[in-house]
Every structure is written in structure tokens, then in C-alpha cells.
Amino acid sequence: MFFYTLPILFNSIRSVSPTECLLMALALFALLYISVSAEDKKWQPQAYSNFLLASWLGGVSLYWVFWPFFLLLNASLIAADLLAKSGLITVSGWDDIHFILLFPITWWTISIWRCSNNTRLRVWAALARWVTVALLVEYGLKLLIRIDYPRIFFNCEDLLLDYGSCF
Questions:
Q1: Cβ-contact 122, 38 below 8 angstroms
Q2: N or C: which end of the chain has fewer CB within 10 A?
Q3: C-alpha angle with apex 126: 122 to 131, nearest 5 degrees?
Q4: Contacts 24+ apart (CB under 8 A), 59-68
């Protein structure tokens, strides 16, 4: 996450400074840490026959909900961005990839929030929630770059079929 968007935000758009982003991120983490319930309950994993449904309902450990999808999602986002930067996919193909990833991200976000109490330390629950909010901010930044600054990110000279998307 933020592999290409933060450099574009800080160097080309210049609407916010890195210090301001860091302060906002720390304030958001503190707010999420406070919002996680402090009750110390002995959580036991529920038996499930369908992992996706059990995760959706909050019956899986936070570790097993967070890490597999986080790694797969970041690999997908970086691959889509690298393909778009090199001109191997069009701008609308890049849009399609992000639109398709939006539905699993919705499942992941809801599962993280429901399973965040299924960990021993509050800090892990707050970090997992913070990453989901950061992912939504990443999507917002990608949408901003796509709509207002496409010539900064996309290799518009090589996109003969989809050149109109660069304006």
C-alpha cells in the first residue's frame, strides 16, 4: 500500500506534507486503540466449515483473517500499478482491477472489524483496524490520481487505445 500514491501526493500534488500525514496517522491509531474493547476475555475459535463465513461472522482469529488477504491484496495492487506504469494494461484495465478488488476489500474490512477482539493484545486489533482504514485512504488517493492527475501516474504516450483516459 502507498507504494506509488504517497510519492505522487508528496512530490507532485503537494497538498499535504509528510509530517501532517504522520500526525494524522498517529491520531487515528490512538483513536482506534481507545475504541478497541479492553475487556480480557478468553476467546476460543469456533468450528467452521466455511472460512469466509466464519470470518465474516467474527469467529476466526484475527491473525488468520488479516495476514493472508493483506499479502495477497498488496501483491495484487503492486502488480496492477507496475503493469499500468509500464503501459502493459490500459487505464480502464487498471480501473477494472481496482473495482474487482473492491468487493473482497469490503469483506476483509468487515471481517477485520468483527474479528479484531479475537486477539490477546489490544495493539494488534488497533493495528489491524488502522490498516483497513489506511487501505480505504489508499483507494481514495488512487481515485484522486485517476480522476485529477492521470498523466502523472499513467504512461499516456504508450496508451494508443485508451489515450482519452489520460485527460
A1: yes
A2: C
A3: 150
A4: 59/115, 59/118, 60/111, 60/115, 60/118, 61/115, 61/118, 61/119, 62/112, 62/115, 62/116, 62/118, 62/119, 62/124, 62/125, 62/128, 63/119, 65/108, 65/111, 65/112, 65/115, 66/112, 66/128, 66/131
Kindly give, in sequence order, each residue whose CB lies less than 8 Å from that of residue 49, ignoring residues fewer than 6 positions away: none
7-21 pLDDT tens trace: 888 888 888 899 999
Residue range 89-105, pLDDT digits in tens: 888 889 999 999 999 99
CA-nearest of 159, 131, 130 to 30 is 130
| Cα–Cα distance list, 97 to 40, 69, 76 (Å) | 41, 16, 9
For residues 30 and 123, the answer to whether their CB atoms sit within 8 Å is no
Retrieve residue 34's grid coordinates.
481507545
Amino acid at 142: K
What are the tens digits of pLDDT across the range 113-144?
999 988 888 999 999 999 999 999 999 999 98
How far is 167 from 164, CA to CA, in rounded Å? 6
